[in-house]
Design brief:
Strand content: 5-15%
Structural class: alpha+beta
Shape: globular
Bound molecules: cobalamin, iron/sulfur cluster
């Protein structure tokens, strides 16, 4: 099936993906995920528990699956937001789920030509994308828990294709974190331990996923939010592997639309219903929903008021 892999590589490059690697679908994943769930590190993300059997056994997702193809897609590295209320880099532009699904459908078609059946995912599927990316030799799992590449670092989306084709596979590469611990040391809430992120303390969780009724961030998390409105990039910003240039072209649709870059926290707090939908139309941020975003904006407004107090006191003295 060398030809099928080659065809997928050409098609992936033409579609703007920067890496393609292949791993066997039946590699045992060990107990990391089970232990992580048992410790409660998934916070309110119950769906991760529900997905466990499928995550550990790709045959439940695609009977006859033999290979996992992992692809990477670059997103902008520059922090574009001008107003207070930072949106993580990966989510500043158009909804990547839709944008990548269309590209994956093209690859599915290419592989079908060689007799394969496929299931494709970008972020939302029951598959351990970082695990397979590391097995496919695209990079290593860093101490920030993310897939880090020698060329390109961690600022990329991972996409996965389960296929019934038996494709030539790649081998894992060595971990190059060495003695560096910058990500763990700089995490504002101490959420990182041994390459694993405890979502209960992760600002990304609290600003994107914590959508359950009555779920409120604890005071230490609220305080640590700083100006983060959606997601958190701190454990990537400090990574030396991210100081190098991007690995490929960045899709301009992933850049922040001007209407969003101009919006102030005060305006966001007032926005409701249709006006809210219009501002976040077609963006990834819309997925957090109006309620969660308002809660975060209120917390940020509280933070900016308290951050202002010491300045005032100083001026009085
Ligand atoms: C749930 C989730 C979250 C949760 C939980 C975070 C977490 N660390 O798991 C929250 C909401 C907090 C989150 C945050 C972020 N996420 Co997220 N998230 C996911 C999701 C949907 C599932 C991850 C998961 O299952 N975690 C549970 C852990 C235990 O499972 P796992 O990572 O798959 O671990 C397996 C392997 O890594 C392996 N393993 C882990 N450690 C070790 C160690 C050894 C020795 C071995 C052998 C194996 C091993 O075993 C595990 C089981 O198979 C994935 C997409 C996906 N389907 O995989 C995206 C994903 C991991 N997220 C992504 C991103 C971009 C982020 C953020 C950077 C977003 C942001 N800017 O705010 C942050 C980063 C936070 C961080 N430092 O981890 C990207 C990562 C891209 C990359 N370069 O790695 C992914 C892959 C989405 C995508 N398709 O692009 N995320
Ligand atoms: S995303 Fe932010 S809060 Fe979460 S582990 Fe990384 S630095 Fe810590
Ligand atoms: S900051 Fe350092 S320890 Fe963390 S992922 Fe990057 S190289 Fe590894």
């Amino acid at each position: 099936m060398k030809e099928a892999r080659q065809a997928a590589e050409y098609a992936a490059a033409a579609l703007g993906f920067s890496d393609l690697g292949v791993a066997r679908a039946d590699i045992p994943q060990g107990d990391t995920l089970r232990r992580w769930l048992k410790r409660g590190c998934h916070a309110g993300m119950d769906w991760l528990e529900r997905h466990l059997p499928a995550r550990l056994n790709p045959q439940l997702v695609l009977p006859g699956a033999r290979s996992v193809i992992i692809l990477t897609y670059e997103y902008p590295r520059r922090d574009a937001r001008q107003q207070p209320g930072v949106i993580a880099r990966y989510a500043q532009g158009e909804d990547y789920h839709k944008l990548l699904s269309a590209k994956l459908a093209d690859l599915d078609e290419t592989l079908s030509f060689y007799g394969g059946r496929q299931v494709c995912f970008s972020d939302s599927g029951p598959i351990s994308e970082r695990f397979f990316a590391a097995q496919a030799g695209i990079g290593w799992i860093g101490r920030n828990g993310l897939l880090v590449r020698r060329r390109g670092g961690s600022y990329c989306f991972l996409c996965s294709i389960l296929t019934t084709l038996k494709l030539p596979t790649d081998s894992p590469i060595p971990n190059r974190c060495g003695k560096c611990h910058r990500c763990e040391e700089s995490c504002p809430t101490g959420a990182l331990h041994d390459g694993s992120c405890d979502a209960r303390n992760c600002l990304s969780y609290w600003t994107i996923e914590a959508r359950k009724e009555g779920e409120e961030p604890p005071p230490n998390v609220k305080k640590a939010l700083g100006e983060r409105m959606f997601g958190c990039d701190t454990c990537q910003e400090v990574c030396p592997w991210n100081s190098l240039p991007p690995r490929g072209e960045v899709d301009l649709r992933l850049l922040m639309p001007a209407r969003l870059a101009r919006a102030t926290l005060e305006e966001l707090e007032q926005l409701e219903g249709e006006a809210w939908k219009r501002l976040f139309a077609r963006t990834s941020v819309r997925r957090a929903g109006e309620k969660l975003l308002h809660r975060t904006v209120r917390a940020l407004r509280g933070n900016s008021e308290t951050a202002f107090l010491p300045k005032l006191n100083k001026e009085k003295r």
